[in-house]
Amino acid sequence: MKVKAAVLWEQGRPRPYAESRPMTIEEIDLDPPGPGEVLIEVGGAGLCHSDLSSIEGLRTRRLPTVPGHEGAGTIRAVGEGVRGLAVGDHVVTAFVASCGECRYCNGGRPNICTGSAASRADGTLLSGARRMRLGGEPVHHYSGLSLFAQYCVASASSAVKIDKDIPLADAAIFGCAVLTGVGAALNTARIHPGSSAAVVGLGGVGMNALLGAVVAGAERIVAVDTNPDKLTLARELGATDTFLAGNADVVQAIIEATHGGVEYAIETAGVAEAMNLAYAITARGGTTVSAGLPAPNKLVSYPHAAMVSDEKTIKGSYMGSCLPQRDIPAYLALYKRGKLPVNRLLSGTIGLEEINAGFDRLTAGSVLRQVLVPNG
Ligand SMILES: NC(=O)c1ccc[n+]([C@@H]2O[C@H](COP(=O)([O-])OP(=O)(O)OC[C@H]3O[C@@H](n4cnc5c(N)ncnc54)[C@H](O)[C@@H]3O)[C@@H](O)[C@H]2O)c1
Ligand SMILES: [Zn+2]
Ligand SMILES: [Zn+2]
Fold it and tell me: How many CB atoms lie within 10 A of CB 128?
């Protein structure tokens, strides 16, 4: 079928993207879903900083590709052997498909499935297939999803059925920012009631980590960002203390305010400075969680002996250490009960032709989550 999609041609074009146009809107050919795959009509696709990092060229991608890895939509066709999903179902997508066979899937950690990691690096679906073409040439898949399009074909393991009472443009954010942020707080950090927590980097992911800390019952919640506008919203969402990053005294100020640091510090900015800050404000015996994704060659370091004698733990958090089939419905239920007000993080919807300008706004930090509605 013919489908309108935002095709990324080149990484590292200069800003503003509204002028350099790293993505153009093309009519691509999309093949029907193969065995174990589904065709999804995209109802909403969020603009995440990970897409921006691909546009910037921070992490190499196979090109051309159609980005977009956070979304929700309607199943329009199912391939052979797909169970549990039917035409007309509403789904939220998870940006890691799971093969169900590798040691990580078998070990209950499908978010770090090796089969999925290999196919993503290769720009294919989990099956190894490429189902998008332009002018006869293959277009690579992105995170096995490629949601910046009217329709996409994805592994059925990436699609989680949801109730139909939530608008798809609102549900989209559950596909990455909510899974990653709330999951980092609840699954990776395992914040406990009455504890102290901090979130460093208050974008779509970080604000969700903050909401996760509230749900977990943290008593003290410190929010840190370089952008003062983010601190105001963080307070409204439940932060008890806010600090502007960037000045030399901020670490000492947080340590003093929290009487020795926080039990859980979550880094969600994707830059080494934020990770260093998160580690520095982690109390003795505490845990530093990082969900940020900087360029692959970026290194962080810490004093080895103090890490040992202070018994600090450092944990990576990919897709919030989530089990999408369990956690997407759980987080949606919390949302419906008013416990996870993620609608406060939505900065409006855009059409396909606005996609480049949308990433200019994300770069500027003037928005949290913009949602692309490609069939609007
Ligand atoms: N681990 C995962 O599974 C996963 C999933 C999605 C996104 N990510 C990554 O998470 C990061 C955040 O994504 P997002 O969409 O929320 O981005 P965003 O652009 O919406 O937010 C980033 C925030 O970090 C702040 N920031 C920048 N430098 C800072 C510093 N030195 N100290 C404190 N704050 C700082 C910015 O002002 C901004 O508010 C990105 O690196 C992204 O690639 C990881
Ligand atoms: Zn994302
Ligand atoms: Zn696997």
Answer: 11
